[in-house]
Structures are given as structure tokens and as C-alpha cells.
Amino acid sequence: MAAEMMKRSSVLDTTDFLSDDELPDDLIVYNVPYTRPLRSLAQREQAYRPSPLRPLRKYGSVSSFSSFGSPKTRASSIFSASSDLSELSLLEDDSKFSDDACMLTLSEDPLVNESLERIAMLNSYKHLSAPTTSKEKLNYLTVTRQTNLPPKDPREASKHTRDYQQLLQTQIDQEQKKLAERKRQLEEQAKQTEKDRAAWRAVLRNYDSLVCLAETRELWWRGVPADLRVNVWIRQMGRTELTDCQIVRYLNDADDIINKACDFKVQRPDPKEFAAQNSKNIQLIKSVQNYSDLIQQAFPNLLIFQYGQAFDSILKVMLAFNLHQRESTSRQFQQIQLTNLVNLICVLYYNLRDEKLTLRMFVNLVSKKLIFHLLVDTNSEYLEDIAGQFDKFLAKTSPAIHSHFKAVGLQPLTVIANTVPSLFSKCLNMDVCSRLVDIYIFEGDTFPLRVLLALIRKIQYKLLGSKEEICNVLGHECLAHLNRSEKYAYRYLDVGDAIEFITDVRTVLRRQSVPQ
């Protein structure tokens, strides 16, 4: 045993830790998350580091099996950029880590993280960093003077150091106050959420009578608790023309289409013969690869939709919707394209955790008047009226941006069509998008327009470029442009946290008080 330990010690002593190839097989590397780059703090953009995959809590009929090696996740094993041997799949099961390691990987409040990083950075300025300086010279150096300059008079150096330390401590104290205030806010939010949870349960018991009350309206503006969303969303949205039997049939047929696509990619049969044998669904089979690519781009910081059960479920819902379109008698409904709606489906599945409920809810949302007409672009009179009203309110809430949009020739309807149909899931993070759905299902089609007005006012500093540059910010490829040079984290449009942004949305049309 002693000889083995000595041997292991000698291996570690000679290991170059910059090379993964030279790490010994028995070396333990703990799962410690990296912090956000300080560059993201300087830009005041909220950067989201990837969090390890965690098994989703299941509601309803979703399978409880892990996607790791499960036959139900065949599509993600074949079409996902990940594989069973990838780093992502190894992170999937939290049971592989100790409780301490799992705690380190939990998502934390970004404002708390920012304060902690600033405090750590300020504390690091207290110490002299001069690794190449001799010990003799080190005695005459201070943290406030460059090492290549001659030392100051001892009295002057001492005074300068005291002033510097006092300045640093003042900044640290300010950050500590911010940190304490943020923690207090989080505690108050947690208490309010518990009260709201009890209130929502009371509403659900007597829904038809209580949902119309002003107190209930305050509840949905504060947000539906995550564990009650499945009950509230489905109860409020009601039932579609889809029957349970239809939904089950569409999902089963979608499963068969996915299996056919997997067989084609793995077995590589003759394309013409394969197309002839599957002529009815060949276009849907071809769409599996494109849909898979789109799913992997959805909320990558969460590492939920890129591999496993969630990946396969989202893919099944998309194909099931296409099957429903094919049987629909509405030619307009058949025209709806899913390319820019993948993120919205992911938001629904993330909160509902059930394929049947997600499909039903998605059909309901795209059937809403505003979203439907924006997707099919048929009722020009209705859309022109919407664009005219939006243009009028934009002139009041953001007059400078309104003038600039007119100067560069950007039409209001273009901005609306690029953002509203996906309920802003192509530019905002999961938490904010979930809160938007909470409110939209109650407030109706005027709500997305309020959101867009608040969003424009919030990020107007990004909207003063050319027409193309504005469309890059308020367009379908917003996140792709925003993260083009990002390597260590994933960014969304910076609108603050969900509570802050929802407050902006609610107050965006209120008259500003004129100072006396």
C-alpha cells in the first residue's frame, strides 16, 4: 500500500496539469463550475454559464427513465451533436456527484454572483503581485506603485497605502451592502411566492368565480409558481378542438417518423427506394434533421434540450403538430412554419413536462388571433391596425427610437412580426419567457405589444444603428448575433431579472408624472 501511494505521488509530481492526456487514470477532478468572465460584468450583460443536465421533474405521463442509454431517446443519440460518450451525457445524472458538488452546480442569482465576483476582485487588489521580484526589493514595494519604479519615501508610501486600503474597503463595504440587500429581496420574494402558491391553490379550487377578481390579476402579474403552472396554464387555456385520441395518435405517428429517420441515417438504404416506401411521410422524415439542429440551439445554457428525453419530446411535439396541420381543414393553419417557434415549444415543455400537454398548449397559443395572423400574414387590415396602434404608442414611450425607425425605413409591423409570434423566446431567457406566458394567457393579445414597447425602451441603446443592425437585435437571429463572439457563457438581451422586466412591462403605458 505504501509503495503504491509513493508511486502515485511521484506520478502526480511529474504530471503536466495543462495536458489532459497526461492525467493519471485515478486522479479525481471535482465538478467545480467556472465563474463568469469579468468582461460580461463590464458590459453589464447577463451571461449564463452552462449548468449540468438535471433530470426534469415529470408531470403526467412523461417517462421517468433517464435518457442515458434509453431506447426512447434514440433520436437524440443519432441526431444530437452529443453522444453517449460526450461530456454532456456524463453530466446528465446528478447521482454521479456528491451533494456538495451538486450544490456547487445549482443556478444562482446573477446579481448575487456579480457582487461576490466584485468583492473577490477588490480583495485581490490588496496584495502585491510581483512574482519576478527579488525578496530584497519586495520589502520596499507597495501595491500602489509599479515594480519598475524606485520606491517612495517611507512616510509617503505609508500614507498612500493607507489611503488606497481605505478606498478599497469603502468599495468592498458598498458591495457588501448591495449583496445583503439583494439577499433580503430574495428572501422577501420567497415568502411572497409561498403566499401566492397558497392563493393560487384556492383559485384553482373555485376557478370560474375567483379568476375574474382583481386580486387574482395581481397574482398572475406576480407570476405563477413553477409547480402550479401545469394546472393554471392548462385550466386557463381550455381545451382545443384536438381530442385526446388525436393527440395520442399524432405523437405515436411522430415516434414512427423519428424511427424511420433514425433508420435512414444509420442503415443508409437506397434513397429512391426508401422514399418510395415512405412516400406519405417522406417530407416529415427529411425535416427531422433540420428540427434537430434547431432544438440544439434552444436555451443552450440550460443543457436540457440538447440531449436526452427533452430533445426527443420536443422533436415529437413538432412532428405531431405537422401531422395535425396536414389533417387540418384550414389552409391558413397549414401554412404555419415551426422554424422560429422551436424556443416557444421548449418554454412550454420546460414548464409542463408532458408531450400531450405541450402539444395542446402550443396549438392553443398559435391559434390566438394576433400570433396566428402574424404567422400566416393574411388579414392585412387587422395587422395594419395593430401596427398603427403600436406605432402611436412607440412614439409616446420611446420618441427617439420611433424617429430613428422612420429614418432608416423600419416598419412597425416588421418589428412586431420578428418578436411577438415566438413570445420573445428568440431573445429572452427561460425565466422571463415563462413569466410572459404566465401573463399572456390571461391578458390576451394586447400584452405582447406592451412587452415589445418595454423591451425597446429597455434596450434602446442597441437600436440606433442601421435597419439591418436593428433587425439583428430584434430579429429571429438575435441570439446568434449576440453570442457570435461568446466562448465561455451564453447571453440573452439584457432586460434585468424577470421581476424588474415585468414591472417595466406593466408600467410602460402609464403616464409619467410631470415634476412641479
UniProtKB/TrEMBL annotation:
All copies of domain Rab-GAP TBC, residue ranges: 223-444
GO molecular function: GTPase activator activity; small GTPase binding
Protein name: Rab-GAP TBC domain-containing protein
GO cellular component: site of polarized growth
Alphabetical keyword list: Coiled coil
Organism expressing this protein natively: Ogataea parapolymorpha (strain ATCC 26012 / BCRC 20466 / JCM 22074 / NRRL Y-7560 / DL-1)
Top-level taxonomic group: Eukaryota
Entry-linked SMART domains: TBC
Ranges in coiled-coil conformation: 165-203
